[in-house]
Amino acid sequence: MPIAETAHEAQGQANEEFRPKILAFCCNWCTYAGADLAGLNRMNYPADVKVLRVPCSGRVNPQHVLRALQDGCDGVLVCGCHPGDCHYSTGNYYAKRRMMVFKRLLEFEGLPPERFQIRWISGSEAGKFRDTIVQVTDDIKKLGPMAADEPSQAVVAALRAKEGEL
Amino acid sequence: MIISKDNMGALADAIGATQTVYVPGTERAATRFVAHKKGEPVVLGGANVRMPPKDLLFPATEKMYRWKKHEGQLSLETEAAAHEPFTVLGVRPCDMASVAKLDLVFLTKGFVDEFYQARRDAATFVAVTCVDPDGDCFCEAMGVRLDAAPAADVLLVDRGGAYEAKPQTEKGEAAVAAWAEALGAGADAAAGDAVEAHCTLNPAAAKAEERLRAEDFDNVWHSVADYCLTCGTCTFECPTCYCFDISQDVRADEGARFRCWDSCMFTQYTLMAGNHNPRADRASRVRQRFMHKLRYFADRYGEGLCVGCGRCIRDCPAGVDIAAIIDAVATAPEHELTEAARTVQADEAKKEAAHV
Amino acid sequence: MSRIGVFVCRCGTNIAGTVDVDAVAQAASLMPNVVYVDTNKYTCSDPGQASIAEAINENNLDHVVIASCSPRMHEALFRKLLAEKTNVNPYQLEIANIREQCSWVHKDKAIGTPKAIELVAMAVAKVDSNVDLHTTQIPVTRRALVIGAGIAGIQAALDIADAGFPVTLVERETTIGGKMPMLDKTFPTMDCSACICTPKMSEAAAHPNITIKTLSEVEKVEGYVGNFDVTIREKAKYVDYDKCTGCGQCEEKCPQRKIPSEFNQGLSFRTAVYKPFPQAVPSKSTIDPAHCRMLTKGTCGVCSKVCQAGAINYDDVDRVTTERYGAIVVATGYELINWANIYPEYGGGRYPDVISGLQFERLVNASGPTEGHVLRPSDRKEPKTVVIIKCVGSRDPHKGVSYCSRACCMYAAKHAHQYLDKVPDGRCYVFYMDVRCAGKGYDEFYMRTLQDGAIYLHGRVSRIYERDGKLVCVGEDTLSDQVVSVNADMVVLETAMVPPEGAGTLATTVNIQRGPEGWFTEAHPKLRPVETNTAGVYLAGTAQGPKDIPDTVAQAGAAASKAIGLLCRGYIQSNPMITHIDTAKCSGCGACVDICPYGALSLVEMTARENSRKVTRVVAEVNAGLCQGCGACTVACRPGAADLLGFGDEGIMQEVETYAYR
Amino acid sequence: MNDATQIVRERATALLADGTVAAVVGWAAGRGDHDRHVFVARTPEEAALLVADQYCGALAAKRVLSLLDEGKIALVARGCESRAVNRFMADRQLKRDQVHVIGWPCPGMLDPATGDALKRCTECQRRNPVLSDEVVGDPVPEPELDRFAELERFEQKTPEERRAFFQDMYESCIRCYACRNACPCCTCRVCFVDQERVGWMGEEFTADQARYYGTVRAFHTGDRCIECGECQRVCPQHLPLMLLMHKQVRDIDGLFGPYPGGGMEPEGPDPLRTYHTDDLEEFM
User: Fold this and answer.
1) Integer Cα distance of C144 and C169 in angstroms
2) Would you call B202 an interface residue with chain D, using a CB distance cutoff of 8 Å?
3) How many Å apart are CA B107 and CA B117, to the nearest integer?
4) Could you say which of D100, D135, D170 is where a domain stops?
5) Contact at 8 Å (CB) between C121 and C658?
6) Contacts of B37 (CB under 8 A, 6+ apart)
7) pLDDT tens, A28-48?
8) Residue D222 sits in which domain range?
9) Which of residues 182-211 of D touch A (CB under 8 A)?
């Protein structure tokens, strides 16, 4: 096992202060299969991401994503087949449009982009699945828990002072 | 005791030394009673606050109890407890009248709401006579005097440049005594006569109530329903609307049961299991709101539920106007009495005959 | 209150190695509504399964969570166990994947165990909101439709018909057979193409289970697997096939004699009333309305006069019929890329002696326009130097298509071989990019062509121009790194296969997908190569992508066997994990209808009593046979009236919250 | 009495009198000088109460949907109302023959209290009706303005500032659902917020719940919004709700456009109900 892979767990154990909670919606046919393949290949990745199986990325309701972020998840990942490879032929195209608009909306409201990510990972891309989990976990660790996003008092005060002015 | 209007900030500071004092201010995009911050000026005149003081006694969301499961063991913890004392400074007669009505709801007829009572007992209400009724104010028509607030602990009577503080309860006596000590007795003496003011809007409420007992006004409800959005603005801004729903927040092995404001304008309000909804159409919800305000509450408590503060008129996005509706009912041409109304009239007649 | 049982698998040490299974079981026992927990060394083994069934029955469990390997592995197995050995509905089962996605990717129990507990908690939360689901059996109409009657369609039709099921074979041309009867010989065995193809055509025509509809196109397909209602338009033929004997008298006398023959690739002429070639099936004449004088100008009527059978009917009209089929095989084949439009450097069609491979087939064919003599079209002289250019359009994303057309390497070799055989003193140059001869006897054939004297040059021809009656082909031989120019008498372009015109329309009609190049897409490139994403629709031959005859026939057989399997079973088991519409919430906005890739949703009128009133309104309805359970509609549906059974909003929410709150 | 009022009354009277329509949806005067509310005239006498002047701030169109049982309905429609009619048709809530559109080229509306132009009118792109059966008066020139100007100013803020801003906004929301009830895109029979069983959102009055409601409602209507601005007008807390709508409309235009905004056409598919295989890819 390459050192770089085990390093993540070692680091995770050492760094006890913040274990992010990340939810990954994965489509059954591509990404979930890719995750299984990562297991078959005994790839090692951080345990901070839990996979929630859905039939298709088109099934992922942005409402579930927002609920997850509000209820205690520090990040959400939505994964599906590459466009064109959807088991249901079109689901991920719809998912893509929805997620593009919804992600922008959440970022507009101030959500750091790293907290809500979308990736296409096929059933054969076990390595990409592992790399994505590693990267997303790192991203969220850098951001810290959701509470770290709370605006500072100074910003709030400045905003209140300028009330009415957009 | 006479206190200069300029000294209201000092008064709030003085009260604030020992307890939270709520004063008219702006917060969360609306004027409302906000916790006073030491040193900030306090002005009691002008337009009334947009949000009534209702939420100080009956918060929009109030936890009732929590439960927790640990290692298979369930534990419960109630949220009702004695509340820290607080003062509300500058309540108008209309809003003070609304507190009296909330008291009827939550503290009489054989049931005492412990959550409400805890806050009510902790509260000292300092009312102020109203000298600025605007074109949508009609409290006088609803039996409220602009220069009196019987439910208040202290009444501040506007005397031009100063207020005369009149204690009305024991709590009020103690409060005024404490103020005098803090501010120096009779420090502000320059006071004129009590300012007198009256509402320009005077819908015929008594007549409306009487006719609502006897007649159906479906045409009125339907014509209002033609433009009412049935949003909850009026009910949430109303100082006397007291409906709530009980719900819970479950999080893994713990949870809390809470109550939160509900609105009879919402379809969910009367939705039953199995999806039947006796008030599915807008007109029936509009009817319910006005019947409750103008008649049902009076049937139960002997007085109407509207205090004429005018908030629902001012902020209704659709232009629904309770004063106009009262007048529409009062002045509608006489029409055929309903079956129910005939029964009621017959009963009344019998009673009267027996009495004679 | 539900009674949930949790069964945690050790999988030998596969799971137990990095997950403390007993700790997971202990934690599970404290989860809401969990009343029974057990662990097992190998849950999927017979004793493991038996112990689960026993525990379920003894403890009256009504929901089951199995924490084990991936649900993709054994979910079906455990569902079957519940269905057969317990009273628990097989869909009251959730699998927590604590092997592939937990124990195998972590090295340390301190990490694997808490993660496994969270995965189990999510599964417990979800299973608690599951509802009983039931499969139903939908009867299958035991008839098949084959669209396209080339060799793929014929083979599929014959196979299905031989299995005893009626087949309708629809062909849009006037004869079945497709491209294969046009070919001269087939590589590598050099069988006479017509000799092996036309008997198949006759067999199909004579088969009691096969109905052939030529000049016909599929207009509309409704319904779903097992029950497709297909509308077919059979165009007017102006000849009563019941009366026509195929004698050919009409053709002899038809005054319109200068119509380029499609069958001979424009190298000869045909008449307006015609049979494309003598062995055409059905062996009947047809009037081409675009060229018939009677039909275009209203004056002629010669054929009608000479027809002794009285078969000519100038007033013939299209016939539209709708019939129900259980399975559909799409075998619509290919066409050759229109090279003239995209290769101006090859003359763009200006030089009559620059011909396509299919034209060459007709030139060397004994029944072709030159009776098998290699004579170039311009002056009917025997070309002494022939250049063959491969990959014209293929593997050329800028001008043509990016893919390899697969059959050209072999038929280029065949053409070289045939030319050198017929013109022993000729010279043949083949410009190639690669020589791909994977196949039984294929490379040997190529070697033989080289021995025959064909000169293979590695490179593309960049330009062809005419000089002194010669076609000068300028190209590069990249092996010798020299510019080569060959003065040819004739040039044969081995052009790319592309999807035929109308493939897009057909894809929409039948509701199957097309890849970026326009070929119909199979359900899975490896494991479901002849199925499509629309259940009950199968692909055969080049409709799915370029291939040669043996592969086409093999795939046709495969498609037929899939169709036969469906027809034999006689019913389909419905997938219960499909969309369900809560009509109380549905406002009939049709967002789901717009978005459904399967056409499974439609708007219907519904009458119901609501709040003491009788109400008629429009709501969405799911066709259980068409819905595949992707769930895209559930998100498009704003109020959540459309919900996916098995992956419902509530179940997913339970999982989300359970994880988020823990 | 202004011309528009005059003509609207005449036309409404005629349409009601000859039985063309069962009701006319427009506006009538309230108690105050400039108070106007949506009004449904069902008789020629009621038609005489109709008003069409610069104080008719409310969007009248949605009222048509609840009157369809009564027969064909006439609607006095400005640009926004006419777009709403298209919206209803695209959402299959209304058929073209169920409504008679009396087009009214809009002069722009004023706030009855302050006399200022209504915000929803200062951001309006299309004052002339996009469809009508007849038109009252002459077309007005379409304003040339950048309706995204405010949005773009807002986007200059740092994410932290925006976060603070929306935190404030959602704390201020009283969840009266006036925006939803007024919105011509919100034609669901049961709104997601009213579905306790699924648990999309809780009933507590907290900023989080309001954020959930506000964000999801914005997303539900984002690809269909007709930009009438009525949500913002009816908000008793005067929250800048159109920011979220403009944000999505502009994003959709940039990503999948050109997109003129919702309500221009009587049928879909709306941008999030369709796709192109060559849509921009940013999730590789």
Assistant:
1) 9
2) no
3) 7
4) D135
5) yes
6) none
7) 999 999 999 999 999 999 999
8) 149-272
9) 192, 200-201, 208, 211
Low-confidence ranges of chain C (pLDDT < 70): none
Cβ pair A47:C649 closer than 8 A: no
Provide the residue type at B275 as one letter.
N
Domain membership flag for residue D101: yes
Residue D143 lies in a domain: no
Q: What is the pTM of this model?
A: 0.81
Q: For D59, which residue in chain B has the nearest alpha carbon?
A: B318
Q: Which of A90, A109, A150 is the closest to D215 by Cβ?
A: A109
- Residue D62 CB: number of other CB atoms within 10 A? 25
B168, two tokens: 């009305």
Domain definitions of chain C by residue range: 4-128, 144-333+557-569, 335-498, 579-645
Identity of the residue in D164, D200, D222 whose CB atom sits nearest the CB atom of A101: D222
Picking from B223, B201, B199, the residue whose alpha carbon sits closest to that of residue B329 is B223
Q: Is residue D277 part of a domain?
A: no
The reply to whether B247 touches chain D by the CB within 8 Å rule is yes
Rounded Cα gap, residues D129 and D135, in angstroms: 8
B55 with B141: CB under 8 angstroms? no
List of chain A residues whose C-beta atoms are within 8 Å of the C-beta of residue D277: 83-84, 93
Report residue D15 as tokens. 């349409």
Strand partners, B159: B162
The complex's ipTM works out to 0.91
Please judge whether B71 and C661 are an interchain contact, meaning their C-beta atoms are less than 8 angstroms apart. Answer: no
Residues D20 and D120 in one domain: yes
B79, B66 Cβ separation under 8 angstroms: yes
| Domain C4-128 coded CATH 3.40.50 | yes
All residue ranges of chain B with pLDDT < 70 are 185-189, 336-345, 348, 351-352, 354-356
pLDDT tens column, D31-50: 888 999 999 999 999 999 99
Is CATH 3.50.50.60 what the domain over C335-498 is classified as, yes or no? yes
Contact D196, D234 (CB under 8 A): no
Closest CA to D126 of D157, D111, D104: D104
Which chains have 3 or more CB–CB distances shorter than 8 Å to chain D? Answer: A, B, C
Q: Is the dihedral of CA C530, C534, C535, C537 positive or negative?
A: negative
**H/E stretch holding C186:** strand C185-186
For residue B15, give every residue at least 6 positions away whose Cβ sits within 8 Å of its Cβ, in sequence order, or none.
B21, B36, B87, B89, B175, B178, B179
CATH of the domain at A59: 3.40.50
Residue D20 lies in a domain: yes
Contact D93 C586 (CB under 8 A): no
| CA atoms in the 13 A half-sphere facing the CB of D138 | 2
- Could you tell me if residue A148 is inside a domain? yes
DSSP secondary structure string for all residues of B145-158: -TT--TT-SEEEEE
Top-level CATH class of C579-645? alpha beta
* CB distance D132 to D101 below 8 Å: yes
How many structural domains comprise chain A?
Answer: 1
Domain that holds residue A147: 3-161
Q: List subunits contacting chain C, requiring 3 or more Cβ pairs under 8 Å.
A: A, B, D
Find, in chain A, the residue whose alpha carbon is nearest to that of C662.
Answer: A72
Q: Give the nearest chain C residue to D277 (CA atoms).
A: C516
Measured CA to CA, the distance from residue B35 to residue B45 in angstroms comes to: 18
Does residue C595 sit at the D interface (CB-CB below 8 Å)? Answer: yes
The model's pLDDT over D117-157, given as tens digits with 9 standing for 90+, comes to 999 999 998 999 999 999 998 999 999 888 999 999 999 99
Type of residue numbered C230: V
Q: Which helix (H) or strand (E) holds B115?
A: helix B114-122
**Taking a C-beta distance cutoff of 8 angstroms, is the pair D265, D86 a contact?**
yes
Q: Which phi-psi region, left, alpha or beta, contains residue B94 (left: φ > 0; alpha: ψ -120 to 50)?
A: alpha
Write out chain B residues lying below 8 Å of D182, CB-based: 229, 231, 317-318
